[in-house]
Amino acid sequence: MSTTHVPRLILSRVREIQNDHRSGSLALARRAGQILAQWTRLPNRRADFHRQLALVCRALIAAQPQMAAIVNLCNAAQRAADRSPHADAARASVRAAVDGFLQTVQMAATEIAQTAATLISDRMTVATHSYSSAVRDALLTATAAGRKFRVAVTESRPLQEGVLLAKELASAGIPVTLGVDAAMALLLKEADLVLVGADAVTETFLLNKAGTFPAALLARRQGIPFYALAGSEKFAPRNYRLPPEIAKQPSEVLPRTPRSVEIRNLYFDETPLKLVTAIITEKGALDPKQAVRRLRKLSLHPALMIAGQGEEVPEE
Amino acid sequence: MSTTHVPRLILSRVREIQNDHRSGSLALARRAGQILAQWTRLPNRRADFHRQLALVCRALIAAQPQMAAIVNLCNAAQRAADRSPHADAARASVRAAVDGFLQTVQMAATEIAQTAATLISDRMTVATHSYSSAVRDALLTATAAGRKFRVAVTESRPLQEGVLLAKELASAGIPVTLGVDAAMALLLKEADLVLVGADAVTETFLLNKAGTFPAALLARRQGIPFYALAGSEKFAPRNYRLPPEIAKQPSEVLPRTPRSVEIRNLYFDETPLKLVTAIITEKGALDPKQAVRRLRKLSLHPALMIAGQGEEVPEE
User: Fold this and answer.
1) Does residue B259 sit in the same domain as residue B136?
2) B182 and chain A in contact, CB less than 8 A
3) I want to staple B84 with a disulfide (CB 3.0 to 4.6 A). Which of A99, B89, B196, B236 is the partner?
4) Which pTM value belongs to this model?
């Protein structure tokens, strides 16, 4: 019995991540980190440690392969393990790497919210699409700083995360207007700037919730700035190829698929970096090309190379 | 008692048009024509005929002020009445003008479907947004001509007319893919051309269901042609100013408006004619500027000038 397995408990938690289509990418990365930490605390064969780590990491990446933060978390964990060939030391290294990664992400989020908040001044209308925790934090930070502004949000079908954002902003006393995604041009018309989050940043595009690309085109057409908020954890490793997205449940679009109609339920579109005015990072507001050069440091660990959504992971 | 009134029966039918947010603009113009014809058959004071006609026309225009076909229908009726100062002759003229208008529209629709169908060849993917009877007819005509192609449709929130189109096309044996409006970039990515309808064409823009403008920007970005299908009845008269759209019921967007959130439910966006490859008219495929020059012939009758949505019409 020399086959390496991933504990069933861990796999079932990975599946929860896979089936979670509502949480943002930082919340998912946080949970992925908890899963990795939990895995290090399980009894497992020392000889197997590094190989099993790679399997857990690949399962996590495959669960949400569009989320660069999970890829980077796993990459950090795998590289940390590499530095310690002995299982016990590697275990501690992985835990420290996960903790360090999540702390860095948290600090970056605070920096980003503060920098993005400075873009907002009194009487502005800020447009956004879907729900980004980074955008939410920026708006709340601007409000806390006494700025008086309005927000225009599109609902973000099929799951309508934009409605959740609208509710949270309204609860915080921010005047907020909500519209359907199709009415994006009409909502943006009165906006002074657009803020969006990011699930991944590659050398050429920003991957984010579908609707971001048309929003960027509209902003360009209208001559208003379009900012993406993304910490370095969102910059996909150099050699990580984002796999094609697997379509989600048609029932999210319509409760019943009409006869002979194919429903294509895709979540992410690619916004060319050329349409992005600046990326707001923990290092400040950077030109997108410059941001990619400065923040995309690591390449993917060889053990994680074949990770791709739908990959079979042997079960314990 | 010299006040001119519109018969209650007519007003109640006009209100049905006002509250109909699902029918296309040609279907609405047809019903507006029926209402005008019905009105000419009602007993009314001869001395009042012309003034009452203007009131009925203004009520019809105000009911759906974005629908150029209704404006042009009313304009034709009012001009016909002008040519006959006597009520009985005017009555017949109005009826003939309405009949003539609707017949012309019908013939134009057939021409447009045939011209647009020639744009579609085997193995193409045609993208469209919302429900346009002109686009539907073009697709059915292409199918009837033996063309094998696919259609990609966006649902068109809030009322999802795109779902209806998808169903109708599927019933006709056309392979059809349906997606949410936010996923427009993803659906268009595989398209070879975009066909949309029009509610109005002005000197500078195409008014159509919200989502059309981002679709045009995406098509331009992607280098695929973007065609609007519009008969001459869709070209707004020279001096008709499209009034600002009045927001529709928030309950169409969400059953319950979340506390402190303002829902803005707008139906129409403006696509600059510069983004339109050609307008397919009953005179063939025309460059948009040329189409406006050739097809926007009449100016609005002075009696209809003050028409605007929400205008009060004295009741009988």
Assistant:
1) yes
2) yes
3) B89
4) 0.93
Which tens digits make up the pLDDT trace of A85-110? Answer: 888 899 999 999 999 999 999 999 99
When the pLDDT of each residue in chain B is averaged and rounded to a whole number, the result is 93
Paired residues of A138 in beta bridges: none
Q: Which residue of B has its CA nearest to A176?
A: B261
Whether A253 contacts A263, CB under 8 Å = yes
**In degrees to the nearest 10, what's the CA dihedral of B211, B214, B219, B222?**
-140
Q: What is the pLDDT of residue A13?
A: 96
What does the alpha-carbon distance between residue B277 and residue B275 come to, in Å, rounded to a whole number? 6
Q: How confident is the model at residue A2 (pLDDT cuts 50, 70, 90)?
A: low
Contacts of B262 in chain A (CB under 8 A): 175-178
B210 and B228 share one domain: yes
Residues A199 and A269 in one domain: yes
The ipTM estimated for the assembled molecules is 0.92
**Are residues B127 and B182 located together in one domain of the fold?**
yes
Reading phi first (left if > 0) and then psi (alpha if -120 to 50, else beta), residue A230 is in beta
Residues A117 and A94 in one domain: no
* Backbone phi and psi for residue B202, each to the nearest 5 degrees, phi listed first: -110, -170
B180 closest CA partner among A188, A120, A237, A269: A269
Best B125, B169, B171, B186 member to test A by mutation, with max A CBs in 10 Å, is: B186
Q: Per DSSP, what are the bridge partners of residue A126?
A: A151, A193
Other Cβ atoms less than 10 A from the Cβ of A236: the count is 24
* Interface residue of A213, A267, A275 to substitute, partner B, most B CBs within 10 Å: A213
CA distance B114 to B94: 30
Specify whether the CB–CB gap between B132 and B169 falls below 8 A: no
- Residue A37 domain flag: yes
Look-up of token digits 């019903």: B31
Is residue B3 included in any domain, yes or no? Answer: no
Residue A174 C-alpha, separation from nearest chain B C-alpha, in angstroms: 9
Tokens of A71: 């890829």
Q: How far is A153 from chain B (nearest CA, A)?
A: 10
The mean of the pLDDT values for chain A is 93
Q: What is the CATH number of the domain that holds A167?
A: 3.40.50.10470
pLDDT tens digit string along A218-238? 999 999 999 999 999 999 998
Please state, in angstroms and rounded to a whole number, the distance separating the CA atoms of residues A113 and B196.
Answer: 40
Q: Are the beta carbons of B222 and B241 closer than 8 angstroms?
A: no
Task: Answer yes or no: is pLDDT of B207 > 60.
Answer: yes
Confidence of residue B84 (pLDDT cuts 50, 70, 90): confident
Residue A312 lies in a domain: no
Q: Are residues A89 and A116 in the same domain?
A: no
What distances in angstroms separate CA B38 from CA B12, B16, B44, one per listed residue? 13, 15, 12
Encoding tokens for residue B243?
Answer: 């009034």
Q: What is the pLDDT of residue B189?
A: 96
* pLDDT tens digit sequence for B281-311: 999 999 999 999 999 878 999 999 864 433 4
The residues, ordered by sequence, that sit 6+ positions from A293 with a Cβ below 8 Å of its Cβ are none
- How many domains does the structure of chain B reveal? 2
Residues B146 and B230 in one domain: yes
DSSP letter assigned to residue B298: P
Give the residue numbers spanning the domain of A230.
112-295
CA–CA–CA angle A241, A243, A246 (5° rounding): 170
